[in-house]
């Protein structure tokens, strides 16, 4: 199996997590920290795995050696304890998380014959959506060079508006990364599209799936939406196409590229999109392209660099699909895969 990857793919030095990254340029990640109930090998049984799109991104970044600050409201009870233990196990500091009194959100996962995930949520009155401005007062303290958010946390009130104000406050100093990660069963179409387009005008890096675009803009080709979004402010817009790879466009250099997917044996697709966002952010961090002071350089990214960045992100997502649940790879696991692929090429 021949896989072309960049020489720099996930060659990261240094320790991970904010606790060991003081003085480094931190990526803040804001949003839900919930529990996924993922089908087990025994039919009718489930495995409780901490997740939530932003939390998955934070865990993935730490595993790739990036300094991370997680902004999350973590629920009470046994499920909340499970989430906290998961974060500690992955060397993520709880210093900027809220120990909430509300219950933990649940996502019940159903898989089709191809391992593609569908979700059924239990989120009424749960912890993730209750953000206040006061809880986010110190969210950007220190050298925060990027803020990543999206998914349910950006649409579920009352906390969504507090997170929107956090984005507005972060933008003068930080790169804004956004993944809409639509959940139609929990969203009103027009309200969700309005919120997406509002955040789009503030974002520098946007990753969106073709399924999200099909729901947001029925009947409109993904390539057309990609071109439209690239003209609305972001430096980089990426549309993931599942097994068909990804499309990407930049604004300043007017680059538009398509990269193929990787042939893999899929266990499930839980967390695949989050892993792609992880790969993008880790790659931009490694290339010193995060932070408001690097916005011009990000916009001027060359096509060869963009191709390499997309291939790195696709590899991170593909490896996540080879195991159950949102379980993104470490730097060592990525390097081992690349080494094996090169030996077999």
What does this structure look like?
This protein is an alpha/beta fold. It has a single domain, classed as UDP-N-acetylmuramoyl-L-alanine:D-glutamate ligase. The protein has ten helices and 14 strands. A hairpin with a 5-residue loop joins strand 7 and strand 8. The radius of gyration is 18 Å and the shape is globular. The termini are close together. The N terminus is likely disordered. Pfam families: PfkB. It is an enzyme of class 2 (transferase).
Task: Give the key terms.
alpha/beta; nucleotide-binding; 21% strand; globular; 14 strands; PfkB_Carbo_kinase; disordered N terminus; 345 residues; Carboh/pur_kinase_PfkB_CS; UDP-N-acetylmuramoyl-L-alanine:D-glutamate ligase; four-stranded mixed beta sheet
